[in-house]
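User: Here's a protein and a ligand (zinc ion). What would the complex look like?
Assistant: Let me lay out the input and then the predicted complex.
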Amino acid sequence: MTDKQNIPELDAEEILDGILEWVNIESPSDDAAAVNRMADAVERDLLGIRADVERIPGRDGYGDILIARGEGAGRRPGILVLSHLDTVHPVGTLEGARPVARDGDVVYGPGIYDMKGGAYIAFHALRHLVRMGTSPSLPVTFVYVPEEEVGSHTSREHIERLALENKYVLVTEPARDGGKVVTSRKGAGDFEVVTRGRPAHAGARHQDGRNAIREMAHQVLRLEAMTDYAREITVSVGVVEGGTFPNVVPAECRALVDLRVPDAAAAEEMCRRIKGLTPVGPDTEVHVSGGMNRPGYRKDEGIAALYEHARALAAEIGFELEDTGSGGVSDGNFSAALGVPTLDGLGVDGQGAHTDYEQLYYSSLVPRTKLWVRLLTTLE
Ligand SMILES: [Zn+2]
């Protein structure tokens, strides 16, 4: 065990400088070249602490995956630190909607909270240990994925493989209201619903038409009615598009649907119900594709023990760490659903993920980096 008295002072200005270097490299998920510029910077920083870095070339139009292994990683189970390099903000946000700015305790920037701040403080904690000549208590592996914000379709296999090689997974997603960590998350599914009718001249031959938008309207109401807050199930129709001209009875309409469920049983039930949609009007068709993307997980014994450990460390450092559940998903869904104890929301405190007021709280930088230092040196 390390002794808490042995933690030398961490410098908030130095931590913020490091975060801003990463924030200043814009990296939207759908721009592989931009995400790879971000990967270049992170790789350079990792090499700077003599980490063993593997870079897996991107595919399907996404950026590269970085895996950094500390001593002993891969040979015996240790700690996996999970981060994403991408953000939802397009290139140009820094010069337009959201420049980096500082106002008292608040520092604004695209992706500063979700999750460049968190990814950086975990890295900084490891760098701190290297500088001190101290080693983590278990082998540590860092993985940085390029497309978390759009579903992690190219990195999921690597996340799951690495999670199963390790004993614990720590996720650098942002802290929730008041600095809370995340110990349960809903599962999420995506569906595309297409309705088909029959086109006709809306004036001359209206009676021959079968309106696909009208059919979709029925389906939208059915889908939305599947929401059941008491059971923590939500079904939300987020996009609808259909039709061509006002004077044409539309032949086709398309909707995109978001499903959130608390567990696997609800996932199965809801996928069956959504895929089982049938037409309401005559001579119309309904086609549903899609399914679950990320599985949900609950706070099981392993997660509870990991959280209690972190809470005790936070108390020693001098702050109260609480936990919460989230309806949002992260790559922690993949590891936790495999039964690997996962603690999420260990990133910086702040607010405004995915908005143009995205911000971190400067005062959270040192305590939360200290928590990372302590987690990396005390987990057994
Ligand atoms: Zn995130």
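Summary: The mean pLDDT is 96.
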